[in-house]
Amino acid sequence: MKFIQILTSSIIALFLVNSTGLQSQEQDDYWANMNNAKTDAVNELVNSTVVENKIVGYSIAILRDGKLIYKKNGGFANFESQTPISSDSRYQIYSATKIFFNIAFMQLIERGELDPDQTLGHYLSDLPEDWAAITVRQAWSHMTGTTDIFDLNGMEPTAEEALKSVIDIPLRFKPGTKSEYNQTNFLLLKMVFESVTKVDYQTYLQEQLLKQAGIEGLLLGDLSLAAPKLTNNYEPHKFEDGRLGRRTLNFPPYIYTSAGINISLNEFIIWWKAVLSGDLVKKQTLRDFWQPIRFPDGSISSRSNGWERQHKDGLLRVGHGGGARVHLLHYIPDEQPEQSATVIFLNNGAFTPYFDHREFGDKLAKIVLQRDISKKIPDIKSLNK
């Protein structure tokens, strides 16, 4: 217990040091659209969330209408060596990796090289008849009924072995009738992508897509990767021999459409600005593929063309989370659809059990999108309920 208290005290101490704010000129640049009341409310919510959940290390950025207005880092990239987090610390973003593939896929559609409503069998041979009849959009929206290639034993070492392990298992439901998230869908999409482009997706990502965004390249790999500025990943409540426990998870290269990107906050900001500016795909294309996907009964899926999607309380939220700890979430209010807010939240683990990081993003977005917070500052205690 004493050891845990020491760890917690160390994290809070470093967090407070890293939360003293930006230099004055930087503050003018980052917070140009934030009045003092909004800044205070955001700071209070970030501070209380980090301390209450005892997050080891974190980086957070908020964009308003595509412009960076808030940026903060705290805690440790490596707890053992007491290495502090910076905006250049790299995080494993797990399934938030899918955001990058989504944009690459949209590029093919914009160029007329791919029809999302065509069947998988149109692009891929040697699929079982029921798999071949699944549409690309159904796979993209996790509406296939296929069995997940990722199970308690992890993943097979090659894409061929992974597909072979599940392809003879009957579909779990009729494609298009419900949504069930799994990694098999994005393996199929990778196969479609490479069938169309004749280029390995990893090569396309590094040599075309990222360069279009002004990024030279990103680290790809699982939690066994060792590289400069890479954060360690820690498990909640996992203490071994007096040390904070590490998370272990393997991502074979064929899964890089779904997981495996290691990225810094600065790189993620550059990436998302390029997405929102229309440099990678048209702005209307984004809006089109953020539209709801409906089931036969008229209900709306929580996943749409590769994106997580929620529409609640007059606010559309799209984006993707990963690893039960990181996310990029983009918000568009119904009343002012020309406006938006984006929350990028990266962290490498916490001492407490899982907390709802998406709800945390929702609270931050509501503060930033509030029209006139100077007249009524949000009750942070109520926001944290």
Structural notes for this entry:
This protein has 385 residues and is α+β, with helices and mostly antiparallel strands. Helices cover 36% and strands 19% of the residues. It contains 14 helices and 13 strands. The strands form three sheets. The chain has an eight-stranded antiparallel beta sheet with strand order 3-2-1-13-12-11-10-9, sandwiched between helices. Strands 4-8-5 form a three-stranded antiparallel beta sheet. Strand 6 (234-240) and strand 7 (243-246) form a beta hairpin. Helix 3 (36-53) packs antiparallel against helix 13. 40% of the residues are buried.
Which features would summarize this protein structure in a list?
alpha+beta, 3-stranded antiparallel β-sheet, 385 residues, globular, 13 strands, 19% strand, 14 helices
Please outline the helices and strands.
Elements: H1 2-18, H2 24-30, H3 36-53, E1 57-64, E2 67-78, E3 83-84, E4 90-92, H4 98-110, H5 120-123, H6 129-132, H7 136-140, H8 159-166, H9 184-197, H10 201-212, E5 219-220, E6 234-240, E7 243-246, E8 261-264, H11 265-277, H12 283-289, E9 303-304, E10 307-312, E11 315-322, E12 326-333, E13 341-347, H13 357-369, H14 380-383
Antiparallel strand pairs: 1-2, 1-13, 2-3, 4-8, 5-8, 6-7, 9-10, 10-11, 11-12, 12-13
